[in-house]
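During the second half of the funding period, the structural biology subgroup turned its attention to how the target accommodates small molecules. The most pressing case was zinc ion, which had performed well in the primary screen but for which no bound structure existed. We therefore specified the complex as follows and requested a full 3D prediction, including the ligand pose.
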Amino acid sequence: MRNGRTALVLAMLVGWTGCASRPAPGVTVALADGEAPAFAADADAILAELEAWRGLRFREDLVVELVPASEAGEKLNGWYESRTKRLVVVEGKSERMGRGVLLHEMFHALQDQHFDLARLHAEVEPLGADAQRALRALIEGEAMLAVSEIMDYDFERHAHLAKEGPIDAARFEKIFHYGYGLRFVRALRDAGGWEAVDAAFASPPRTTAEIFDPSRYLDPEPAVDQPGLPPEGAVGPAAPRGEFEVRLFLARSETLRPRVDELAGHLVSELAWSTGAETAWRLCFDDPRVAEAIRAESDALGARLVAASGPPGGIVTAYLGSDAD
Ligand SMILES: [Zn+2]
């Protein structure tokens, strides 16, 4: 707790029967100053809604901290820390926004109480950025699905990149975590109910490619061993970067940006090498026209591209900018 600030505490114990062996977990809302926003008084109802929607019960009490916007980082509306269990909602937003953030962060607490989010993050830590992004999409996607269905909020309608101008990498990443994550979780639930989502927390997707196309997670096929030599100048071992990085790369071009879903659907394999000063990236597509479309945009992509042919389709070798960029 912070020092030097009085905290009004509204205790809202939910489901207390007085006779059960253990009371049902409840929500305590800790206010910074002043009056509680209306949504704070509904925290108990939100807890019950989340349980009913997901078919899981909270196991531990929650403490929700309302903090002034001046104390929160820029653009943050709220957060949940799985390590410390701290759950924060930033004040001063609209009533509907505050309610949505409260619901979203409380849902992370429900996930944490059942699936141990800190353990999941620790397990994925040594596996690299692509696996970390895939896990985050599972976690954020499910929380955003809860918000969109319980509050009837069409998140996907708002999840678009600007058509023009330089690519906004932070927004691209948000759309991946929340938008593609939401679709991934919904696809799992459509395929096998909440049991399938539970199974994904037991055995999380390890590549962003699975998030973009949930059938790769639900019905995995062995990786294609694509023939082809390393790009000229490549040194050291090759390692995949992940489909997220490929899409982010393609989206640098305003021409390719609206076609990224379509183009990435033809991606067969990708491998990156170091060339010393630069990164060399070999992208293989099952359609030579895709390779050609990418090669035609080399200037906009800010990369030197060399196209090579190789069965069964096109191979594009992309020399990205130096690692220091
Ligand atoms: Zn979240």
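Two results from this model are relevant to the next phase. The CA atoms of residues 47 and 320 lie 48 Å apart. The pocket of zinc ion is lined by residues 104, 108, 140, 143 (CB under 6 Å).
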